[in-house]
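Memo to structure team: turn this sequence into structure tokens by end of day. - J.P.
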Amino acid sequence: MDITSLLTNPYVLLLLIFVDGLLLGLGIKKGVWSVLLIILAVLLSEYINYSVIPSASLSSFETNVRNHIYYIITNIEKVLPGNSTTTISLSLVIFAVGFIIGYLKG
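Reply from structure team:
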């Protein structure tokens, strides 16, 4: 059995989705304070008219995030594996379970 046939196995794919949710949950749990402090620093720099990143502002960042979320919502079939609604639902459930476990254990 070669590595490509192993990675195309649906069970391995579901396991990887679970691990992805688990790692994201752990990362979010550990990084909440750092993200809050970064947002506070950017807001403070915007208030004193000092741009942290040249040619970037908080409003352009917000627009980019909104456009990215809109793209993911409208093209969910391209983002998640599989073509059927059942696969998307199962993938989301597995990811959510991994995310919750990672967040609570982090």
